[in-house]
Design goal:
CATH class of the domain at 2-113: Mainly Alpha
Strand content: 15-25%
Structural class: alpha+beta
Number of helices: 7
Shape: extended
Radius of gyration: 26 Å
Helix content: 25-40%
């Protein structure tokens, strides 16, 4: 039975198998679930500029994700489709707008499902997939960190096994490599220091003495300060009041740190009791759009972490 498939640069998109298949060579590459979904969405309207917000909503469906999830997925697609970030002949980054899949590389083809479906014994090596992890951070500087895990390349052969190199030459090469590594480390350290100086976040308490068991801290970038604290507090007043009553009844205090940049809200809270502590870091997209969902999410997650705290035994 014939079926209509989308194709990009001769790579046929096979959603059921979670892979793309080359129409000429028959090579198959596996993609992550969200990478394949992103490619399918871009292909359906090739030539159209999708904003980052649109793609985030369409692919991840308002899930809480890391800041680099979309750029990392675009990078993986470019590598799979034999494109790259410099030439961008297939997937283009449109500055300050979003991403576009060039229509000239796209078409629809009809194929028998048996021709496309993956054979039972498929020797194609799976492409490395993206794995995300949220890393706990210090309360005064909440952030979301992502880890990319790929198959490690084979280790290079030691210098001693290289034919035609004398012992003295090996020592000279080793010394030069160590010296180069030292200079590169110094350059990297200086750049990181400058970056940290220009992106220092300062915590400022807001609505002090309003709640008995909650402290609110707005994190402002000293170089480019944000002014979202009033808007956020206006949305969360009722939820914070309810949480304060709950915390008070259980003798628990909570510190909240938040930082907003464009449509992204970084929200961290720490719970403290006499015998236990809990912390949660969240990155929320489009938090200004739906106040009800924002309140429900924060109330639900705070209750969950509160329920995980150990019960203090009377001494």
């Amino acid at each position: 039975m014939n079926k209509r498939y989308g194709s990009v640069n001769n790579w046929l998109i096979d959603l059921p198998s979670g892979s793309i298949l080359h129409l000429v060579t028959g090579e198959r590459k596996r993609l992550g679930e969200y990478q394949l979904k992103l490619l399918h969405i871009l292909m359906q309207e090739a030539g159209r500029i999708f904003t980052r917000e649109e793609l985030t909503n369409l692919v991840w469906e308002r899930r809480v994700i890391g800041n680099n999830s979309l750029p990392n997925a675009i990078h993986a697609l470019r590598a799979a489709l034999e494109d790259d970030g410099k030439t961008q002949k297939i997937i283009r980054t449109i500055p300050r707008k979003g991403y576009l899949l060039e229509a000239e590389y796209c078409c629809f083809v009809e194929k028998e499902e048996t021709e496309v479906s993956e054979p039972e014994a498929d020797d194609a090596s799976p492409a490395p997939e993206l794995t995300e992890s949220l890393k706990p951070v210090e309360p005064n500087a909440p952030e979301v960190a992502e880890t990319l895990i790929y198959d490690a390349p084979p280790a290079p052969a030691p210098l001693a096994s290289t034919p035609g190199i004398s012992r003295a030459q090996r020592w000279i090469v080793l010394a030069l490599l160590l010296l180069l590594s030292f200079f590169l480390s110094m350059i990297l350290a200086s750049r990181l220091a400058l970056h940290n100086q220009s992106n220092t976040l300062a915590a400022q308490e807001i609505q002090a003495n309003v709640y008995s068991n909650i402290r609110l801290y707005a994190l402002d970038n000293e170089v480019n300060p944000t002014k979202a604290e009033d808007q956020l507090y206006g949305k969360l007043k009722g939820t914070l009041y309810a949480l304060n009553q709950m915390l008070k009844s259980q003798s628990v205090t909570m510190d909240v740190y938040f930082f907003s940049e464009n449509q992204t809200l970084n929200y961290t809270f720490s719970l403290h009791s006499r015998c236990d502590e809990k912390q949660l870091v969240m990155t929320l997209y489009h938090w200004r759009i739906d106040a009800q969902n924002l309140n429900n999410l924060i109330l639900r997650e705070t209750r969950r972490k509160l329920g995980e705290m150990a019960t203090c035994k009377d001494s």
